[in-house]
Amino acid sequence: MMASVSYETVGRVAVVTVDNPPVNALSRVIRSGLSDAFGRFQTDESADIAVIIGAGRMLIGGADISEFGKPPQSPSLPDVILQIEQSAKPVVAAIHGMALGGGLEVALGAHYRIAAPGTRLGLPEVKLGIMPGAGGTQRMPRLVGADTALKMITSGTPVTEAEALQSGLIDQICEGVDIREAAIDYAQSLLSDNAPARPISGLPRATDSEGVIQQWRAKLQKSLRGEVAPLVAVDAVEASVQKSFAEGLKEERRLFLHLMDTPQRAGLIHAFFSERAVAKLPEISDIAPRDIARVGVIGGGTMGAGIATSAVLNGLAVTLVERDSEATDKARATIAGNLDAAVKRGKLKAEQRDAILTDALKTVTDYGALSGADLIIEAVFESMDVKKEVFAKLDEILPRGAILATNTSYLDVNEIATTTARPEDVIGLHFFSPAQVMKLLEVVVADKTAPDVVATAFALAKTLGKTAVRAGVCDGFIGNRILSHYRTAADHMVLDGASPYQIDKALTDFGFAMGPYQVSDLAGLDIGYATRQRKAADAHPRDRYPTFADALYHKGWLGQKTGHGYYLYEKGDRKGRPDPEVEQIIAQARKEAGTSPRTFSDDEIVRRYMAAMVNEGARVVDEGIAQRPLDVDVVFLYGYGFPRWRGGPMKYADMRGLDSILADIRTFAETDDHFWSPAPLLEKLVAEGRNFDSLNQR
Ligand code: 3HC
Ligand code: NAI
């Protein structure tokens, strides 16, 4: 459908409708349409007041993000909004669904604002690495005060219509949901009251008497982990309290254009489009998913209980099977605790929790109770033998067509499928811990998995509010396979002289939520140990072994759960502090390995870690385990705490330059050409002068 802005009059009200599905983005056609409409309104003697409204689901979802990074085309949005604001006749914004970013800025250009129930209003620009650039940083503080404006602008989180009414952002909430009718009535009542045009730019500047601007700046400096846009937005708001409206607008423009040019903007826009692209799979584009109402979960440990929580919280009935009644009681208690936490956070009502615990959740020891389930998710111990036994049993109990999924972290889903007579119904659903919180779901498609089973997995992810990424079968799929590789690079650095604490610090400074040794302590050192044991048989004579990690494991230092891992944890403390004894154990391991320790700069640590991640990422794409580089990026953004503003590891590599990554790998290979062999795809792209993004069909 063509984007358009229409103009009609109802009585003496001009109704200007923005129509650009799906979100009425302010593309060039819409901007010039708005400009034409308001030009017409000024000379239209049959209209005394105008209403701006959006067709379809919302007023306006923002500027057109697909135009970012391209040469600007006039009219510019700030100019269009100024034109609306300078109208001598009053203008009303009729807001329903959402008014986001430039959409809310258009509403701020109007003189009156009315919103429908259920509306969300926000300035989410910082989530894209920019800030409001069409007057939002200047009008918002004048309208609602500096503190509320800073809260909305620096967090990017939208507010409800009730909050908007309270802060003065809107003037009225309409009754019922027919926003068009309500807005026309409101406009007519304004006319009867002789209400004037009321530009926000004419309001006095907000004051900063309490020093809120400095308080916000200090708070953000502590929490941002390298992200720049929110701090630049504070500068823009500061301009609004110090300068005239016209001067402030100029300063906003300057800062906005500066952010538009940053790699962070490029990274965050890549993240935005990639997280939408991962669900677009040609293999399932016209395949209907199977119906899922009843879910069975096998195993109620860390993952099973989390998966069951996620399912019941999203309206699915769950039957969870454990080995004995002690284990079922424990699983039920964990799930109840998770639901209590949801009640505390206001995500669930107490009655809903009670209903879930009595009706939706069954915890049993008898596999027979699963017979009516549409989907089973197995989350028992990470052992091929145990999993095979479980799948053979499930195959007997469940009718054909019921989906049998495994939550294995590493194991071969094809091999698991061979224990059933219906490999087409078998798939990997790899959740991340804690499963009721983490947004990533790796959908592991085995050789014989049926397309409608894949489609069902993607539909399930949507039901659970998760982002699904398709992965192929290999040891660890996309995420854990790459993790194993860069984790090994980190261990090599420890063996060669870097301390785990320096490595963690260098990587959190880079923007990771946690460093690799903090992650080990959180997950439990027993997990890494079990993985090393499993892989021992395939070890190459030139592999370097992190004996220090085994030593910690054998001491029973398993991380946070035992109060001691790489870090020491005082009671109740989850931060941990470095432990000299661990450093001694590492020194001993170096001695035994015959390495003479050297120093590492933080820069070298990051370069080695990232080179290992990107190199293995390139292999994973080349082998078809990930469909595109962007799938790798989304896995790392959602499952591994990769800094979103860097766009993901493959986007990071593109922005740094693949030749630079390859040069690093070749340099590292001079001392270890066993670990550091360049991925063929990386070499090929560099030779052809291409980047990973050239492989991203969206
Ligand atoms: N520009 C261009 N395309 C957009 C867009 C935008 N602002 N917002 C969404 N889209 C596209 C999506 O890419 C998607 O395309 P696809 O179907 O081809 O994948 C389609 O619209 C539907 O989007 P969603 O799947 O995200 O739909 P939802 O209903 O789940 O969510 C939404 C709707 C909450 C509006 C969400 O799309 C969103 O958050 N959009 C971005 C909002 C935003 O950041 N606005 C600020 C833009 S920057 C700005 O305004 C600068 C100004 O200050 C100058
Ligand atoms: P866990 O040890 O916490 O829980 C496993 C549960 O399975 C135990 O409660 C056990 O009693 C139960 N169980 C074992 N055999 C059973 C059987 N035959 N029938 C019914 N119940 C049985 O393990 P965790 O961490 O929950 O892991 C489960 C699976 O999820 C593993 O395959 C693991 O690799 C995978 N996984 C783990 C993640 C993590 O962070 N812990 C993340 C993603 C996947």
Automatic annotation (TrEMBL):
Positions of transmembrane segments: none
Limits of the 3-hydroxyacyl-CoA dehydrogenase NAD binding domain: 295-471
Major localization class: other
Domain 3-hydroxyacyl-CoA dehydrogenase C-terminal: 476-569, 605-690
Family matches, as PANTHER family: 3-HYDROXYACYL-COA DEHYDROGENASE-RELATED, 3-HYDROXYACYL-COA DEHYROGENASE
Pfam families: 3HCDH, 3HCDH_N, ECH_1
Keywords, comma-separated and alphabetical: Fatty acid metabolism, Isomerase, Lipid degradation, Lipid metabolism, Lyase, Multifunctional enzyme, NAD, Oxidoreductase, Peroxisome
Source taxon at top rank: Bacteria
GO-annotated biological processes: fatty acid beta-oxidation
Name the record gives this protein: 3-hydroxyacyl-CoA dehydrogenase
UniProt similarity note: Belongs to the enoyl-CoA hydratase/isomerase family. In the N-terminal section; belongs to the enoyl-CoA hydratase/isomerase family.
Location in the cell: Peroxisome
Catalysed reaction equations from the record: a (3S)-3-hydroxyacyl-CoA + NAD(+) = a 3-oxoacyl-CoA + NADH + H(+)
InterPro entries membership: 3-OHacyl-CoA_DH_NAD-bd, 3HC_DH_C, 6-PGluconate_DH-like_C_sf, ClpP/crotonase-like_dom_sf, Enoyl-CoA_hyd/isom_CS, Enoyl-CoA_hydra/iso, NAD(P)-bd_dom_sf
Lineage, top ranks: Bacteria, Pseudomonadati, Pseudomonadota, Alphaproteobacteria, Rhodobacterales
